Amino acid sequence: MDSAAVCRSEQASEVIKIGQVDDVQELQRVCFATVPERYIRDGDDRPGGGGGDDDVRAQQRIPVIDLGELLRGGEEELDKLRLACEEWGFFQVVNHGVEEEVMYEMEKLAREFFMLPLEEKEKYPMAPGGIQGYGHAFVFSEDQKLDWCNMLALGVEPAFIRQPKLWPTTPTNFSQTLEKYSIKIRELCLRLLTHIAETLDLQPERFNGMFGEAVQAVRMNFYPPCPRPEMVLGLSAHSDGSAVTVLQQDTAFPACRYKSIEHRAVANGELDRLSVVTFYAPAYDVELGPLPEFVTDEEPCRYRRYNHGEYSRHYVTSRLQGKKTLEFAKI
Prior knowledge:
By secondary structure, the protein is an alpha+beta fold. The protein has helices at residues 9-13, 24-30, 53-61, 67-71, 75-87, 100-114, 118-121, 174-199, 206-210, 308-316; strands at 17-18, 21-22, 64-66, 90-94, 133-135, 150-157, 215-223, 235-238, 244-249, 255-257, 263-265, 273-281, 287-288, 306-307. It has one domain (38-326): Jelly Rolls (Sandwich). It has 10 helices and 14 strands.
């Protein structure tokens, strides 16, 4: 057997750990022809092969919402948004108001960061069990199946959630670009929450007024090529813990996730993939629960009121596992 096709034990032992988990880009570099057992999913949990074709087909069916038309008061577009929220909880946004150059620059610098030497990226380590920095999040046991990706996760707003020592100083202008990008995405989230309130026949500012000093974080996911993409997942199936999630994947427009849709990311056998994900959520001290106007005898309350900070702690200390974190608030 050609030695180049074998992941030698001495090479594997030299893979540097990020927290408790091997750096996936280093695994891909030193032993490209194999996939370590810990990344291989059980049959029912695999993406089904095709190197991401299923994911592409699903993306082609995702509803497209024209924010410009919503701003002009288009009732038909509002109906499309209502249907997308009810049936998908996930939709693509066009005419969203985020300048292409802002999106391009953020994507460009994120990719440049992941291309840095490992020793440079290690300056911003994600601590075991942590959720900010470079590495892997949501890893809680030695026998847990791992995702085929590396992450850079950063708290943005409010200021007290930031960890400045984890904000990269390389590439140049990374922090300034992230600041500018985050402002634009926050404006988008506010506009979308306004229109989502309208789909429920609520006052347009109803949700924005409930959030308090909203929490905003960003996570950049890098998925290197995988020799067996049909056997791994780039990101485990999960539902997000935020109110709104804005996803920018490579050069595509952001797609926004609402409701608690379950989703996952698949790997590719030939190409790397990059996504920039923004999470927008209520302040930690906000009390949340079902809106009273939606609780009736026919539709009784199924969730209790809870403190959002407590839910956030529950979410970040639980492994990604479908919609399991919703059990936190169930009556």
